[in-house]
Protein backbone atom coordinates (compact mmCIF):
# COMPACT_ATOMS: atom_id res chain seq x y z
CA UNK A 1 0.00 0.00 0.00
CA UNK A 2 1.41 3.45 -0.90
CA UNK A 3 2.48 5.55 2.07
CA UNK A 4 -0.05 8.23 1.12
CA UNK A 5 -2.95 5.79 0.74
CA UNK A 6 -3.73 6.08 4.45
CA UNK A 7 -2.97 9.81 4.68
CA UNK A 8 -5.62 12.02 6.26
CA UNK A 9 -7.84 14.14 4.06
CA UNK A 10 -6.76 17.69 3.21
CA UNK A 11 -6.95 20.27 5.96
CA UNK A 12 -9.33 22.27 3.79
CA UNK A 13 -11.52 21.42 0.80
CA UNK A 14 -13.42 23.63 -1.62
CA UNK A 15 -16.02 22.68 -4.20
CA UNK A 16 -17.00 24.97 -7.10
CA UNK A 17 -19.89 24.04 -9.38
CA UNK A 18 -20.25 26.09 -12.57
CA UNK A 19 -23.36 25.77 -14.71
CA UNK A 20 -24.85 27.53 -17.72
CA UNK A 21 -28.52 27.03 -18.54
CA UNK A 22 -30.31 28.14 -21.68
CA UNK A 23 -33.70 27.65 -23.22
CA UNK A 24 -37.01 27.47 -21.43
CA UNK A 25 -39.64 30.06 -22.22
CA UNK A 26 -38.34 33.64 -22.56
CA UNK A 27 -40.34 36.07 -20.45
CA UNK A 28 -41.19 33.46 -17.81
CA UNK A 29 -39.66 33.13 -14.32
CA UNK A 30 -36.21 31.62 -14.61
CA UNK A 31 -36.40 31.75 -18.39
CA UNK A 32 -34.99 35.19 -19.11
CA UNK A 33 -36.87 38.22 -20.35
CA UNK A 34 -38.33 41.09 -18.33
CA UNK A 35 -40.38 38.97 -15.93
CA UNK A 36 -37.47 36.59 -15.58
CA UNK A 37 -35.33 39.49 -14.36
CA UNK A 38 -37.92 40.25 -11.72
CA UNK A 39 -38.00 36.72 -10.35
CA UNK A 40 -34.29 36.08 -10.99
CA UNK A 41 -34.79 32.35 -11.34
CA UNK A 42 -35.66 32.03 -7.68
CA UNK A 43 -36.37 33.93 -4.48
CA UNK A 44 -33.73 36.58 -3.88
CA UNK A 45 -32.18 36.33 -7.34
CA UNK A 46 -28.92 34.43 -7.09
CA UNK A 47 -29.46 31.64 -4.56
CA UNK A 48 -27.35 28.63 -3.72
CA UNK A 49 -28.47 25.61 -5.73
CA UNK A 50 -29.16 27.34 -9.05
CA UNK A 51 -26.48 25.12 -10.62
CA UNK A 52 -28.88 22.22 -10.02
CA UNK A 53 -32.33 23.76 -10.42
CA UNK A 54 -31.53 25.25 -13.81
CA UNK A 55 -32.97 28.76 -14.23
CA UNK A 56 -31.64 30.34 -17.44
CA UNK A 57 -28.32 32.06 -16.88
CA UNK A 58 -24.78 31.40 -15.64
CA UNK A 59 -24.38 30.22 -12.07
CA UNK A 60 -21.70 29.27 -9.57
CA UNK A 61 -22.11 27.47 -6.24
CA UNK A 62 -19.19 27.33 -3.81
CA UNK A 63 -18.70 25.30 -0.60
CA UNK A 64 -15.70 25.48 1.73
CA UNK A 65 -14.79 23.44 4.80
CA UNK A 66 -11.88 23.32 7.20
CA UNK A 67 -11.05 20.17 9.09
CA UNK A 68 -9.60 22.24 11.92
CA UNK A 69 -12.71 24.45 12.08
CA UNK A 70 -15.76 22.20 11.50
CA UNK A 71 -18.09 24.95 12.76
CA UNK A 72 -16.65 27.65 10.47
CA UNK A 73 -19.17 30.45 10.14
CA UNK A 74 -17.81 32.62 7.34
CA UNK A 75 -14.98 32.95 4.84
CA UNK A 76 -14.01 34.88 1.73
CA UNK A 77 -13.03 33.85 -1.77
CA UNK A 78 -10.66 36.01 -3.76
CA UNK A 79 -11.80 36.20 -7.40
CA UNK A 80 -10.11 37.69 -10.50
CA UNK A 81 -11.03 41.11 -11.87
CA UNK A 82 -12.56 39.49 -14.95
CA UNK A 83 -15.31 38.01 -12.78
CA UNK A 84 -16.64 41.55 -12.27
CA UNK A 85 -17.28 40.44 -8.69
CA UNK A 86 -13.75 41.25 -7.42
CA UNK A 87 -12.08 41.52 -5.08
CA UNK A 88 -13.85 38.91 -2.92
CA UNK A 89 -17.00 36.87 -2.48
CA UNK A 90 -18.48 36.59 1.00
CA UNK A 91 -19.19 32.99 2.02
CA UNK A 92 -21.55 32.26 4.92
CA UNK A 93 -22.43 28.95 6.53
CA UNK A 94 -26.12 27.93 6.57
CA UNK A 95 -27.55 27.58 10.08
CA UNK A 96 -30.05 24.84 9.25
CA UNK A 97 -29.67 21.43 7.68
CA UNK A 98 -28.21 18.03 8.49
CA UNK A 99 -24.41 18.09 8.78
CA UNK A 100 -22.55 16.04 6.17
CA UNK A 101 -19.91 13.68 7.65
CA UNK A 102 -16.41 15.03 7.07
CA UNK A 103 -14.95 11.63 6.27
CA UNK A 104 -17.50 10.54 3.66
CA UNK A 105 -15.33 9.32 0.74
CA UNK A 106 -15.63 11.33 -2.43
CA UNK A 107 -15.44 8.37 -4.81
CA UNK A 108 -17.03 7.70 -8.18
CA UNK A 109 -19.97 5.44 -7.49
CA UNK A 110 -21.93 4.25 -10.48
CA UNK A 111 -25.41 3.14 -9.65
CA UNK A 112 -28.71 2.78 -11.48
CA UNK A 113 -31.57 5.12 -10.79
CA UNK A 114 -35.11 3.80 -10.68
CA UNK A 115 -38.33 5.61 -11.52
CA UNK A 116 -41.75 3.99 -11.59
CA UNK A 117 -44.39 5.89 -13.57
CA UNK A 118 -47.72 4.33 -14.47
CA UNK A 119 -48.94 2.99 -17.81
CA UNK A 120 -46.52 2.09 -20.59
CA UNK A 121 -43.09 3.48 -21.36
CA UNK A 122 -41.61 3.41 -24.86
CA UNK A 123 -37.85 3.81 -25.10
CA UNK A 124 -36.06 4.88 -28.30
CA UNK A 125 -32.36 5.60 -28.65
CA UNK A 126 -29.70 6.73 -31.12
CA UNK A 127 -29.49 9.51 -33.73
CA UNK A 128 -31.10 8.97 -37.12
CA UNK A 129 -34.06 9.91 -39.27
CA UNK A 130 -35.82 6.54 -38.95
CA UNK A 131 -36.79 4.34 -36.04
CA UNK A 132 -34.27 1.54 -35.75
CA UNK A 133 -35.08 -2.14 -35.92
CA UNK A 134 -36.02 -3.53 -32.52
CA UNK A 135 -37.30 -0.19 -31.23
CA UNK A 136 -39.07 0.95 -29.23
CA UNK A 137 -38.46 -1.10 -26.14
CA UNK A 138 -41.81 -1.21 -24.34
CA UNK A 139 -42.45 -1.62 -20.64
CA UNK A 140 -45.97 -2.28 -19.41
CA UNK A 141 -45.98 -1.11 -15.80
CA UNK A 142 -49.03 -3.18 -14.99
CA UNK A 143 -47.32 -6.43 -16.02
CA UNK A 144 -43.64 -5.84 -15.35
CA UNK A 145 -41.94 -7.71 -12.51
CA UNK A 146 -39.22 -6.13 -10.30
CA UNK A 147 -36.38 -7.58 -12.42
CA UNK A 148 -37.86 -6.14 -15.62
CA UNK A 149 -38.34 -2.75 -13.96
CA UNK A 150 -34.74 -2.67 -12.73
CA UNK A 151 -33.38 -3.56 -16.15
CA UNK A 152 -35.54 -1.09 -18.03
CA UNK A 153 -34.86 1.87 -15.74
CA UNK A 154 -31.14 1.37 -15.34
CA UNK A 155 -29.31 4.58 -16.15
CA UNK A 156 -25.60 5.30 -16.05
CA UNK A 157 -24.53 7.76 -13.41
CA UNK A 158 -21.23 8.54 -11.70
CA UNK A 159 -21.92 11.95 -10.16
CA UNK A 160 -19.70 12.72 -7.17
CA UNK A 161 -20.10 15.27 -4.42
CA UNK A 162 -19.91 18.87 -5.49
CA UNK A 163 -20.94 22.13 -3.86
CA UNK A 164 -23.43 21.45 -1.07
CA UNK A 165 -25.14 23.30 1.75
CA UNK A 166 -24.56 22.11 5.31
CA UNK A 167 -23.89 23.83 8.67
CA UNK A 168 -20.24 24.55 9.34
CA UNK A 169 -19.32 24.97 5.67
CA UNK A 170 -19.57 28.51 4.27
CA UNK A 171 -21.24 28.79 0.87
CA UNK A 172 -21.67 31.29 -1.94
CA UNK A 173 -24.04 32.79 -2.96
CA UNK A 174 -24.96 33.78 0.58
CA UNK A 175 -27.34 36.17 2.26
CA UNK A 176 -24.72 38.94 2.56
CA UNK A 177 -23.53 38.40 -1.01
CA UNK A 178 -26.01 37.16 -3.59
CA UNK A 179 -24.80 39.16 -6.57
CA UNK A 180 -25.54 37.78 -10.00
CA UNK A 181 -22.63 36.86 -12.26
CA UNK A 182 -22.47 39.84 -14.66
CA UNK A 183 -22.86 39.45 -18.40
CA UNK A 184 -19.50 38.73 -20.02
CA UNK A 185 -17.80 37.84 -16.73
CA UNK A 186 -14.97 35.31 -16.67
CA UNK A 187 -13.54 33.29 -13.79
CA UNK A 188 -10.16 32.84 -15.47
CA UNK A 189 -7.35 33.90 -13.14
CA UNK A 190 -6.27 33.47 -9.55
CA UNK A 191 -8.68 32.39 -6.82
CA UNK A 192 -8.01 32.04 -3.11
CA UNK A 193 -9.81 31.22 0.13
CA UNK A 194 -9.23 32.79 3.51
CA UNK A 195 -10.86 32.69 6.91
CA UNK A 196 -10.53 31.27 10.41
CA UNK A 197 -9.32 27.69 9.99
CA UNK A 198 -8.35 28.07 6.32
CA UNK A 199 -4.67 27.22 5.63
CA UNK A 200 -2.40 30.01 4.45
CA UNK A 201 -1.68 29.95 0.75
CA UNK A 202 -4.96 28.35 -0.36
CA UNK A 203 -4.63 29.81 -3.86
CA UNK A 204 -5.04 28.34 -7.33
CA UNK A 205 -5.51 29.48 -10.92
CA UNK A 206 -8.38 28.67 -13.28
CA UNK A 207 -7.58 28.54 -16.98
CA UNK A 208 -9.91 29.05 -19.94
CA UNK A 209 -10.73 25.31 -20.05
CA UNK A 210 -12.40 25.61 -16.63
CA UNK A 211 -14.22 28.91 -17.06
CA UNK A 212 -18.00 29.23 -17.18
CA UNK A 213 -19.19 27.42 -20.30
CA UNK A 214 -21.07 29.17 -23.14
CA UNK A 215 -24.79 28.68 -23.55
CA UNK A 216 -25.95 25.95 -25.92
CA UNK A 217 -28.00 27.33 -28.80
CA UNK A 218 -29.96 24.36 -30.07
CA UNK A 219 -31.58 24.67 -33.50
CA UNK A 220 -34.32 22.46 -34.92
CA UNK A 221 -35.38 21.86 -38.50
CA UNK A 222 -38.50 19.95 -39.47
CA UNK A 223 -37.71 17.25 -42.06
CA UNK A 224 -41.21 15.83 -42.18
CA UNK A 225 -40.68 12.50 -40.47
CA UNK A 226 -37.79 13.68 -38.28
CA UNK A 227 -36.30 16.64 -36.44
CA UNK A 228 -32.79 17.69 -37.41
CA UNK A 229 -31.06 19.07 -34.32
CA UNK A 230 -27.89 21.14 -34.64
CA UNK A 231 -25.71 23.27 -32.42
CA UNK A 232 -22.46 25.23 -32.47
CA UNK A 233 -19.13 23.60 -31.52
CA UNK A 234 -17.92 24.30 -27.99
CA UNK A 235 -14.21 24.21 -27.14
CA UNK A 236 -14.86 23.18 -23.53
CA UNK A 237 -17.26 20.33 -24.34
CA UNK A 238 -15.80 16.91 -23.55
CA UNK A 239 -18.96 15.14 -24.72
CA UNK A 240 -22.66 15.72 -25.43
CA UNK A 241 -25.87 13.97 -24.46
CA UNK A 242 -29.50 14.60 -25.41
CA UNK A 243 -32.72 13.17 -24.00
CA UNK A 244 -36.40 13.87 -24.52
CA UNK A 245 -39.54 12.83 -22.70
CA UNK A 246 -43.12 13.23 -23.87
CA UNK A 247 -46.58 11.79 -23.36
CA UNK A 248 -48.55 9.92 -25.96
CA UNK A 249 -52.17 9.83 -24.95
CA UNK A 250 -52.93 9.61 -21.24
CA UNK A 251 -50.92 6.58 -20.22
CA UNK A 252 -47.89 6.27 -22.50
CA UNK A 253 -44.57 7.95 -21.84
CA UNK A 254 -42.13 8.23 -24.75
CA UNK A 255 -38.42 8.53 -23.95
CA UNK A 256 -35.58 9.07 -26.43
CA UNK A 257 -31.85 9.49 -25.83
CA UNK A 258 -28.91 10.10 -28.16
CA UNK A 259 -27.08 7.06 -26.77
CA UNK A 260 -26.17 4.18 -29.08
CA UNK A 261 -27.14 1.89 -26.23
CA UNK A 262 -30.49 1.63 -24.51
CA UNK A 263 -30.20 4.01 -21.56
CA UNK A 264 -33.01 6.01 -19.98
CA UNK A 265 -30.61 8.91 -19.46
CA UNK A 266 -32.00 10.03 -16.10
CA UNK A 267 -28.56 9.87 -14.50
CA UNK A 268 -26.63 11.56 -17.29
CA UNK A 269 -28.13 15.04 -17.25
CA UNK A 270 -25.78 16.20 -14.52
CA UNK A 271 -22.09 16.60 -13.76
CA UNK A 272 -20.03 13.46 -14.44
CA UNK A 273 -16.34 12.86 -13.61
CA UNK A 274 -13.77 12.77 -16.40
CA UNK A 275 -13.11 9.01 -16.23
CA UNK A 276 -16.80 8.21 -16.62
CA UNK A 277 -17.20 10.62 -19.54
CA UNK A 278 -14.27 9.06 -21.37
CA UNK A 279 -15.54 5.54 -20.75
CA UNK A 280 -19.04 6.36 -21.98
CA UNK A 281 -17.60 8.00 -25.08
CA UNK A 282 -15.92 4.68 -25.91
CA UNK A 283 -19.21 2.89 -25.22
CA UNK A 284 -20.99 5.35 -27.57
CA UNK A 285 -23.36 6.38 -24.82
CA UNK A 286 -22.23 10.00 -25.18
CA UNK A 287 -21.68 11.93 -28.41
CA UNK A 288 -18.12 12.91 -29.34
CA UNK A 289 -17.07 16.51 -28.59
CA UNK A 290 -16.82 17.37 -32.31
CA UNK A 291 -20.46 16.36 -32.92
CA UNK A 292 -22.73 19.23 -33.98
CA UNK A 293 -25.89 17.49 -35.22
CA UNK A 294 -28.30 14.67 -34.43
CA UNK A 295 -31.57 13.69 -36.10
CA UNK A 296 -34.51 12.25 -34.19
CA UNK A 297 -37.54 10.45 -35.68
CA UNK A 298 -40.70 12.32 -34.74
CA UNK A 299 -42.17 9.07 -33.49
CA UNK A 300 -39.35 8.89 -30.94
CA UNK A 301 -39.57 12.47 -29.69
CA UNK A 302 -43.27 13.19 -29.82
CA UNK A 303 -44.83 16.60 -30.28
CA UNK A 304 -45.56 17.80 -26.75
CA UNK A 305 -42.48 16.83 -24.82
CA UNK A 306 -39.35 18.32 -23.37
CA UNK A 307 -35.88 18.02 -24.89
CA UNK A 308 -32.76 18.46 -22.78
CA UNK A 309 -29.14 18.62 -23.84
CA UNK A 310 -25.95 18.72 -21.80
CA UNK A 311 -22.33 19.55 -22.65
CA UNK A 312 -19.93 18.05 -20.12
CA UNK A 313 -16.98 20.23 -19.18
CA UNK A 314 -13.70 18.88 -17.89
CA UNK A 315 -13.73 18.39 -14.13
CA UNK A 316 -10.74 19.97 -12.39
CA UNK A 317 -9.22 18.40 -9.26
CA UNK A 318 -6.31 20.21 -7.60
CA UNK A 319 -4.47 19.30 -4.42
CA UNK A 320 -1.57 20.97 -2.63
CA UNK A 321 1.05 19.76 -2.32
CA UNK A 322 0.58 17.48 -5.37
CA UNK A 323 0.59 13.73 -4.83
CA UNK A 324 4.23 12.54 -5.08
CA UNK A 325 5.26 10.27 -7.92
CA UNK A 326 7.11 8.05 -5.44
CA UNK A 327 4.35 5.97 -3.88
CA UNK A 328 6.57 5.31 -0.85
CA UNK A 329 7.05 8.99 -0.08
CA UNK A 330 4.96 10.49 2.74
CA UNK A 331 2.21 12.80 1.62
CA UNK A 332 0.16 15.28 3.65
CA UNK A 333 -2.26 17.29 1.48
CA UNK A 334 -3.01 20.73 2.85
CA UNK A 335 -5.87 21.83 0.62
CA UNK A 336 -7.88 20.52 -2.33
CA UNK A 337 -10.41 21.98 -4.73
CA UNK A 338 -12.87 20.38 -7.14
CA UNK A 339 -14.38 22.38 -10.02
CA UNK A 340 -17.25 20.89 -12.03
CA UNK A 341 -18.61 22.34 -15.28
CA UNK A 342 -21.68 21.82 -17.45
CA UNK A 343 -23.87 23.65 -19.94
CA UNK A 344 -27.49 22.56 -20.25
CA UNK A 345 -30.20 23.53 -22.74
CA UNK A 346 -33.93 22.90 -22.55
CA UNK A 347 -36.20 23.02 -25.56
CA UNK A 348 -39.38 21.60 -27.07
CA UNK A 349 -40.02 19.99 -30.43
CA UNK A 350 -40.47 22.74 -33.00
CA UNK A 351 -39.04 25.49 -30.77
CA UNK A 352 -36.09 27.35 -32.30
CA UNK A 353 -34.30 28.30 -29.12
CA UNK A 354 -31.77 30.61 -30.76
CA UNK A 355 -34.44 32.61 -32.59
CA UNK A 356 -36.67 32.82 -29.52
CA UNK A 357 -33.80 34.11 -27.36
CA UNK A 358 -32.91 36.78 -29.93
CA UNK A 359 -36.55 37.81 -30.41
CA UNK A 360 -37.10 37.99 -26.65
CA UNK A 361 -33.98 40.13 -26.14
CA UNK A 362 -35.02 42.45 -28.99
CA UNK A 363 -38.56 42.78 -27.65
CA UNK A 364 -37.34 43.41 -24.11
CA UNK A 365 -35.00 46.17 -25.32
CA UNK A 366 -37.82 47.74 -27.33
CA UNK A 367 -40.26 47.57 -24.42
CA UNK A 368 -37.71 49.13 -22.07
CA UNK A 369 -37.02 51.92 -24.60
CA UNK A 370 -40.68 52.72 -25.08
CA UNK A 371 -41.72 52.38 -21.46
CA UNK A 372 -38.72 52.99 -19.18
CA UNK A 373 -40.86 52.80 -16.06
CA UNK A 374 -42.50 49.46 -16.86
CA UNK A 375 -40.08 47.32 -14.87
CA UNK A 376 -40.35 49.60 -11.82
CA UNK A 377 -44.11 49.44 -12.10
CA UNK A 378 -44.11 45.65 -12.15
CA UNK A 379 -41.68 45.54 -9.25
CA UNK A 380 -44.11 47.67 -7.30
CA UNK A 381 -47.01 45.37 -8.13
CA UNK A 382 -45.11 42.25 -7.10
CA UNK A 383 -43.54 43.90 -4.08
CA UNK A 384 -39.98 43.28 -5.26
Structure overview:
The chain has 384 residues and is of the alpha+beta class. The chain has one domain. It is 15% helix and 28% strand. The chain contains seven helices and 17 strands. The strands form three sheets. Strands 1, 2, 5, 6, 7, 12, 13, 15, 16 and 17 form a ten-stranded mixed sheet that branches. Strand 10 and strand 11 form a beta hairpin. The N terminus and C terminus are likely disordered. This is DUF2169 domain-containing protein.
Give the low-pLDDT segments: 1-5, 25-44, 370-384
Oligomer: single chain
Query: Kindly state the mean pLDDT as a whole number?
Result: 83
Q: Into how many domains do the coordinates divide?
A: 1
Helix content: 10-25%
Number of strands: 17
Radius of gyration equals 23 Å
| Total of DSSP H or I helical runs spanning 4+ residues | 7
Q: Beta fraction of the residues?
A: 25-35%
Shape: elongated
- Derived structural class: alpha+beta
N→C terminal distance: 59 Å
Amino acid sequence: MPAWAASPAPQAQAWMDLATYSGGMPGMPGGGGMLGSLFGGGKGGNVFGNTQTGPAGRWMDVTLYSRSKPDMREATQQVPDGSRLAPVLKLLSPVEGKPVPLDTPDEVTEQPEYHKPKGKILLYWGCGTEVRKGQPRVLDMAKANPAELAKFFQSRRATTRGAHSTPGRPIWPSKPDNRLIPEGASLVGEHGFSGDGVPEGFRFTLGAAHDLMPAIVLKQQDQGNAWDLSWQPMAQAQAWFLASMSMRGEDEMVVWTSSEQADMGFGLLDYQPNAAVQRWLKDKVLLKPATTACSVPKEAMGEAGMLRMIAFGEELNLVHPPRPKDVKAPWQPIWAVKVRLKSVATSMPGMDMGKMMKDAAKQEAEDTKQAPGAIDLLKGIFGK
